[in-house]
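Late entry, written up from scratch paper. The run itself happened at the end of the previous shift, but nothing got recorded in the book at the time, so transcribing now.
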Amino acid sequence: MFFVASVVSWTGLWVHRIAVTWLAWQMTGSAFWVGMVAFCDLAPAVVFSPFAGAIADRVDRVRLTMVSQMAIAAQAATVGLLLAAGELTIGLLLVLEVCSGIAASFAQPARQSLMPALVPRADLPAAVACNSLCFNVARFIGPAMAGPMIAWGGVVPAVAFNCLAYLMATFTMPLLRVPPAERRGHAPEASVLADTVAGFRYAGRHPGIGPLLIFAAVANLLVRGVQEILPPYVDRLFSRGPDGLAMLTAAIGIGALISGLWVANRGRLTGVTRLAVGAIAAQAVFTVAFVTSPWFPLALACAVLMGASTSMHGISAQTLVQSAADPAMRGRVLSLWGLIVRACPATGALALGAAGEAFGLKGPTIVAMCLALLVVGWGITRMPVMVRELEGAAPARRRGQE
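Output as recorded:
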């Protein structure tokens, strides 16, 4: 039930994302404003995710998830109603995307913190991989639905579908069998601010989680921006419309799906750190090939490989974080992970959009990928410590204590 609801809501999310980025491109014809829409959806995680993680560790996580998901549904309904009435401007769209981003910042740590309560601990790596697989299934289905939906009825049906998807996910939450002790991390002992600071301190001092989160943050800042603002690339590099956008996003989803199935099938922690680091190098190389491709079918093939490497990194890093984090800190650590995967791609998208207006899309993208390869070099130097702390001795000691 948890995974089905995830697939449905994330499918709605991808349909919505495709719709609003295409709407912003239609409204403005500017890569900068498309990047700004992505930024406004994802960047609120910078401010709200750390506090959301602290709150998720001290309140009923099921209820927090339901309230957050209802807010996302309400935002989608508002976008659709304003657009249908002809009252939606780019400014209003940005404000509404900020609201959705805030709600998602609370939903992410609350919902993901429930997963260890739904499966035996030994199955957690496979469950995390399956959860990411659900996201990537939606990443394939959503764009495949969005293109025809937008071509047939415009943006309004697309955002309405997102509203219905999140309502469905919300109303299935009370049906989950979550042990009462797992519904919250700990009884409140300090202020939310103190708990938030404690989460940062815990992650920063952990010899495995700290370097992994730093690596993921810088890497996602550099490599993920292209996937967040695909419409300008589709139009300017390949002279395609909504069909091309849907094909490219679906290709990314196919690659992510295949990669996710492979990682989920591994079902073990050994070698996962190497996958998390190596996938960023692969993503940088395939992104360069994508933006320099003179032929759209070749770009589609590169998009498949981009999606595969993105999925491999995301599943691997999240599995390591979930497995290594102390249960009382799980919500806060996952909120930091949510901050990274939301705010860093958004910031990268905004930077690429702004640079694309000034210098074209290819040059800034290639520079960003070269910088990402330098970050991979740093990650390789930290890998022995991360492997020991995330895959080996530290997790083993923690299991023994429990």
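DSSP finds 17 helices and no strands in the chain.
(Scratch paper discarded after transcription.)
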